[in-house]
Amino acid sequence: MTADEETDSTVPPPAPPPRVSEPAEPPEGEPTSTSRRMASHAFAAVREFVTVAAIAIVLSFLVKTFLVQPFYIPSESMENTLVKGDRVIVSKLTPAPFDLARGDVIVFVDPGDWLGETPTAKRSGVIGAVRSALTFVGLLPNDSQGHLIKRLIGLPGDHIVCCDAQNHLTVNGVSLDEPYVKAGEDPSDLIFDITVPAGKVWVMGDNRGHSSDSRLHDPAGDGKEGSIDESLIVGRAVLTIWPFDRVTWLSDYPATFGGVPDPSKG
């Protein structure tokens, strides 16, 4: 063996070229881990939104059914206490568990043709369906179709007369100073002398000359037909919530009715 041959035999073989790691690519059509995470987050967000919305709708429906409900004022009969377009909150805790009081502003179901055949505009299609659904669950104010809002003047057994020598209503012999009556309006342009039947109340609008109330629906003049049944009362209006410049609590005017005795003492 020559020196050259010996030298060649001791030289190690050349190292193989280094391997370059290539990123693993998923088969075509399969989502990457990043896209899977994004889809998971999106699903969680949608699920959370749906859950919160469902809870809000259920709570709103329960509140509307048992506690309070918004209503829209469609006419001028309660001016200037309430004007057309106002939105009010109605407490359903009156007449039960809390008692009705003279001076309360109440919402009640039409006793029968008090509203006449007044046409009402309705939205059709998807918008109408959405509005109806939101109104049903209490997220939009009731458009007041089939309902009226008036001031309670007399409780069961009250003796109400229009008018005394000062041109005031009297309840159980007490003359009423009515600051809520619209300026320029008389307490009533109809003369009456009635006693409110048991289980019923006598109601009048604050805009006395433009209100279809108990006076106009009592043809016999004895209070029996003009008084409304307590079972028709939805609740007591407590707060004007819209428009913002008219937000205010609605008073039952204790100074006006505080001196009225019970019917047995009148």
Walk me through this protein's architecture:
The protein is α+β, with helices and mostly antiparallel strands and 266 residues long. The chain folds into two domains: 34-66; 70-265, Umud Fragment, subunit A, CATH 2.10.109. The chain has helices at residues 3-9, 33-66, 125-137, 254-257; strands spanning 68-72, 87-91, 105-109, 147-154, 159-162, 170-171, 174-175, 192-195, 200-204, 228-229, 233-242, 248-249. The strands form two sheets. Strands 1, 2, 3, 4, 9, 10, 11 and 12 form an eight-stranded antiparallel sheet that branches. A four-stranded antiparallel sheet has the order 7-6-5-8, with no helix packed on it. The chain starts with a helix and ends in a 9-residue tail after the last helix. Mean pLDDT is 82; it is low at 1-9.
